Amino acid sequence: MKKLILVFATTLLALTGFAQYNHSTATYKNQWGQTTGTATTSTDYYGNKTTTYKDSYGRTTGSATTTTDYFGNQKTTFKDSYGMTTGTATTSTNNYGGYGNSTTTYKDAYGTTIGSATTNSNSYGTSTTYKNQWGQTTGSSTTNYNGYGSSTTTHKDQWGNTTGTTQTTTTSSYYPW
Predict the structure, then answer these.
(1) Smallest Cα–Cα separation from 38: which of 58, 63, 64, 23?
(2) What are the Cα distances from residue 174, in Å, to 21, 44, 67, 69, 167?
(3) Would you list the domain boundaries of the chain?
(4) How does 103-132 read in b/e, with b if 16+ C-beta sit within 10 Å?
(5) Per the CB 3.0–4.6 Å rule, which of 21, 41, 104, 175 could disulfide with 91?
């Protein structure tokens, strides 16, 4: 009996050590370089993500939970700081090995489509075009991978004016210690 409990406890400890696969922190800046907020994301081994958003003062403004299916398709649920669902994003992908195209559909809390995004990925980064519910382009973003888990994203409005940047740094946890 003691051996069974010891095996159970050891297994539980090992599983919790592998529960978080990696962490990333994104810092958002406006077009003048002022920090406007951050997002901290934890990703598990299966690609499921939990993100916490904070404003420039460090106050939590919302969260997002993303689940990933076997084919790489994702569903994200966004919540405000009170835990109320504010919307969802569903991403369908046809990429292989992380490269290719994906389409994201955004819906509000009532299930009404409010916009979409089309992303093209390659080994150097991604390019995304955002559209509103009527199919009109509202903006774009370009992400360049800097290597070693970091990337820089430049955001632009529908006229091509830079509206801000995002610097993301990722740390991986491959081992439980």
Answers:
(1) 58
(2) 6, 11, 20, 21, 23
(3) 2-172
(4) ebebbeeeeeeebbbebebeeeebebebbe
(5) 104
Read off the pLDDT of residues 110-130 as tens digits, 9 standing for 90 and up: 999 999 999 998 888 899 999
Tokens encoding 95: 């990429």
Helix (H) or strand (E) holding 4: helix 2-17
Give the mean pLDDT of 91-100. Answer: 74
Looking from the CA of 147 toward its CB, the CA atoms found within 13 Å total 0
Say whether domain 2-172 belongs to CATH 2.60.40.
no
Record the tokens describing residue 160, joined without a space.
């091509």
Nearest to 66 by CA among 86, 41, 94: 41
**Taking the model in full, what pTM does it have?**
0.79
